[in-house]
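Most newcomers find our protein records easier to grasp once they have seen one. Sequence and backbone structure share a record, each on its own labelled line. Nothing more is needed to start thinking about how sequence determines fold. As an example, a complete record with its sequence and its structure tokens follows.
=====
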Amino acid sequence: MQTPLLMKCFHISEIVHSFTGIECRLFDLESGILPIKSSCYCDRCCKYENTDCDPVTAYMQAVSEADSAGGTYIYCCPSGYIFIANTIYQNSMLSNGLITGPILTSDNKIEMQNISNCVVPPSNIPILSKDKVTELGQMINAMCSGLSTQISFHRSKPLISEHSFIDYSERYSIDSEKLIIRMVLSAEKEEAEQAISNYVNDLYTTSGYNITAVKRRLSELVVLISRAAIDGGADKTYIFLLNTQHIKELSFPTTIEELDQWSVKMIGRYINNMLDCRHVKHADIMEKALQYIRLNIDRKITLSDVAEHVYLSKSYLSRIFKKELGCTFTEYTNNLRVEKSKVYILDNSVSLVDIANAVGFEDQSYFTKVFKKTVGISPGRYRDLRGNI
């Protein structure tokens, strides 16, 4: 029997479909079925036919998440399509949900093997921008709020327990992380940069365009990448220094575009350091020399000091530096000092004078000169930009 509330819900679903061309179906939380006779896209989807996805369970979980999130939940199904779940309340209880989808976004990448088996080809599925998907969810939520009777302002008890909720995007992101790690280990820089760019944008979509969630996942990935870089031959001390810098930098991007650019730059740094160490032929000598430099970088250190430490003449060590690292001893130490200074610069409580002394420069003016030559901007400007250059 269709109650007045259900009839109004059907009317909302018809309006959404009429204006957007997107399927919008009413879902009954008690019976776990759509109170309509016609089938929806998910009934015909290849994932359902292959038993990889159960639409009824997915709808219940999505509506439960929408209940916890304030009425709207945007998620990505196993086939890569976007869906919007909205809640409907009756007598202060969550009674029904509206499921809107499938939707494609301009940057939503669907695996070709999934597309080839789908009953409805992607060309027939509406495409919206990420902002429009969010706005559509908000609009449907506003209409549903107008229908809901005696809505409680307290969070309803989730219909699906937290432990039984299956995050379909989790499986995809873990596979992507493994791919990125393999590319780092094999030093495939361009491929790794493209992979992490795809990873960031896909995470943004599957998280419902939650940039905070993307940052949280990236902070975990930084640790995994750094370990892979060390396994691939990168210098531990330098990598740990990079980790500190990256974790601080991660708080600065405010848009997905900035976060995308940052992630590409981040993974490039790890691979570059790994390649630098791999290409060194005089491995034992250089490793000992570079370790000595890193341990003493916070004070004045000369080529003679290092040469004496590795039992080589100053001229021979100088030639090794130039041949194997492609730079002079002074250039290497200055670059290392500049990289170390970047971490301190992001801390506004530390003066530039103290930073110069902490990384082994004799005075601030020389530190500023070297920093600007290396980075392209002054330390003060780098601080103002929060490292986003």
In short: The first helix runs from residue 4 to 20. Confidence is low (pLDDT under 50) at residues 109-117, 150-169.
